[in-house]
Design brief:
The complex is a heterodimer of chains A (about 120) and B (about 120). Chain A is an all-beta fold and about 120 residues long. Chain A contains no helices and 11 strands. The radius of gyration of chain A is 14 Å and the shape is globular. With about 120 residues, chain B is an all-beta fold. Chain B has no helices and 11 strands. The chains are: A mainly beta (about 120), B mainly beta (about 120). Chains A and B meet through strand 4, strand 5, strand 9 and strand 10 of A and strand 4, strand 5, strand 9 and strand 10 of B.
Chain lengths: ~120, ~120
């Protein structure tokens, strides 16, 4: 069974640009969550999607957005990039709709550097 | 914001020794999960313990959960150099937090474990 796949693995962008990151969940998983990891703030929850609907959102500005497609693949977008957006962005999938006590499986992450 | 704290922040031991990491959290939980992260890569799931469980084992891993103290510990026995990584606890509030918990894990700051050969 293939794991969670995130693309691209590495990105370098300039301040003010926008970026789109992609996440393909484990087959059959309908819940996809996104996290930002930085040395200062640690792992912070961005948002969660289930069946193409955003069910939960963390405390991030509106520049951070996402969506989910009918095949459960998800994308997140960050507009008007700031230096502070440099981070490792992690995606996780789970089948919590079938079992609320189920683990989340993470991808390898996308390392975003804003210069 | 982080759910709680992990202790110690860093741990350095010799191969063959046991490593114990502690995690405290603040709110009611549905379950608590432990993850490992190697050098800024993805998180690898280690073990999940439900709120009604007190202890769980998986190979060389032993996890305890004390909901009255809102704390958990991860014990790695007979450590190996390959266990060198950062270890995170993460809590799932589940139904305790209603809709605000969907898909959300709240992580501690992590413990950096170094196992010397």
């Amino acid at each position: 069974k293939a794991g969670v796949t995130q693309t691209p693995r590495y990105l370098i962008k300039t301040r003010g640009q926008q970026v789109t990151l992609s996440c393909s969940p484990i087959s059959g998983h309908r819940s996809v969550s996104w996290y930002q990891q930085t040395p200062g703030q640690g792992l912070q929850f961005l948002f969660e999607y289930f069946s193409e609907t955003q069910r939960n959102k963390g405390n991030f500005p509106g520049r951070f957005s996402g969506r989910q497609f009918s095949n459960s693949r998800s994308e997140m977008n960050v507009s008007t990039l700031e230096l502070g957006d440099s981070a490792l962005y992690l995606c996780a999938s789970s089948n919590e709709d079938r079992d609320p006590n189920t683990e989340a499986f993470f991808g390898q992450g996308t390392r975003l550097t804003v210069v | 914001s982080q759910q709680g704290e992990e202790d110690p922040q860093a741990l350095s031991i010799q191969e063959g020794e046991n490593a114990t990491m502690n995690c405290s959290y603040k709110t009611s939980i549905n379950n608590l999960q432990w993850y490992r992260q190697n050098s800024g890569r993805g998180l690898v799931h280690l073990i999940l313990i439900r709120s009604n469980e007190r202890e769980k084992h998986s190979g060389r891993l032993r996890v305890t959960l004390d909901t009255s103290k809102k704390s958990s510990s991860l014990l790695i026995t007979a450590s190996r150099a390959a266990d060198t990584a950062s270890y995170f606890c993460a809590t799932d509030a589940g139904a305790n937090a209603g809709g605000t918990s969907y898909g959300k894990l709240t992580f501690g700051q992590g413990t950096i474990l170094t196992v010397h050969p």
